[in-house]
Write a structure and sequence with these properties.
By secondary structure, the protein is an all-alpha fold. It is 53% helix and 1% strand. The protein has 14 helices and two strands; from the N terminus they run αααααααααααββααα.
Length: 285
């Protein structure tokens, strides 16, 4: 083999070894910082500017990719701004505010701070607004409203968002009064069952904050009993025979079945409860 090729291979090998060494050293340094407790998780500590920019850029590119195939309907025909504002008033104004309306302390104290939707709604296409509202944003506190609001309600919310940047405070107050009787519609149907979708539903109702659930990555919590190998159980809450139908009843309204249970009513709609029950009955540890 010519000396030049040997030298080139050696150079390539040393480059790879150097790159791997840098990754290992970086991971080790990160582990030391993490385990030492030196990294502050306080909500009063702002991200580095470069961290914020990277996250913001990643969000925009991710939304653009996943919203690319969303077909925007004729919002004037299928959307109702009054309904959209009813959804916004119930779920969004606390964190994002509205014309002449301050955010709640919850929204003011989050990190990262929830963005001004007046600016986002003016700059972002309707498909992007729909995707973010429907799917939420990981590590930001923005929930996936697909599990609380119907598709029609989501598009109505988008219609309100597109109108909000051009509203005066007086116009917003008028809309607030006009929509006082409007309700934000819940989903009435859900997509076909899948193991992954059932896991999402459990997380959306924060079930994994109190229970260990087979197949879910979450806190090692013991507030409630672990929901593993559920098919082996004889009773639900010590009262109901363990059947899929009774499990759905329990998930939807535990307090009506046993007023002494510590499990609260979580406003779980029945189609979601059916997915949960099917998952628990079929999941094996």
């Amino acid at each position: 083999m010519p000396a030049r090729q040997v030298a080139h291979r050696h150079k390539l090998l040393f480059s790879v070894i150097g790159a791997v060494a840098l990754v290992v050293i970086g991971a080790a340094a990160g582990a030391v910082i993490l385990l030492s407790g030196a990294y502050s998780t306080a909500a009063t500590k702002q991200h580095f500017a470069i961290t914020y920019r990277i996250l913001e850029t990643g969000l925009r590119f991710s939304v653009a990719r996943y919203a690319d195939k969303i077909v925007v309907p004729d919002l004037e025909r299928v959307a109702d701004v009054n309904v959209g504002y009813a959804c916004y008033r119930r779920y969004c104004v606390q964190c994002h505010g509205a014309p002449g309306v301050a955010r709640d302390p919850l929204g003011r104290g989050q990190l990262p701070s929830p963005s001004s939707l007046s600016e986002s709604a003016r700059e972002w296409p309707a498909a992007h607004l729909f995707y973010v509202t429907q799917q939420g944003v990981r590590m930001s506190g923005m929930p996936a409203w697909e599990y609380r609001i119907s598709t029609e309600g989501l598009w109505s919310t988008v219609a309100f968002l597109k109108a909000m940047p051009f509203m005066t405070v007086a116009e917003h107050r008028k809309l607030d009064a006009a929509s006082s009787g409007a309700d934000c519609p819940k989903p009435t149907t859900v997509k076909a069952y899948s193991r992954e979708r059932a896991q999402i539903i459990f997380r959306q109702y924060a079930c994994d904050n109190c229970h260990i659930i087979g197949g879910l990555v979450g806190p090692n919590t013991h507030v409630g009993p672990p929901l593993v190998n559920w098919h082996e159980r004889k009773y639900i809450g010590g009262i109901l025979p363990n059947t899929p139908e009774n499990l759905v009843r329990w998930i939807v309204s535990p307090q009506s079945i046993s007023p002494h249970t510590m499990m609260p009513d979580l406003d779980v709609i029945e189609p979601h409860a059916q997915h949960m029950a099917r998952y628990l009955m079929t999941e094996r540890e």
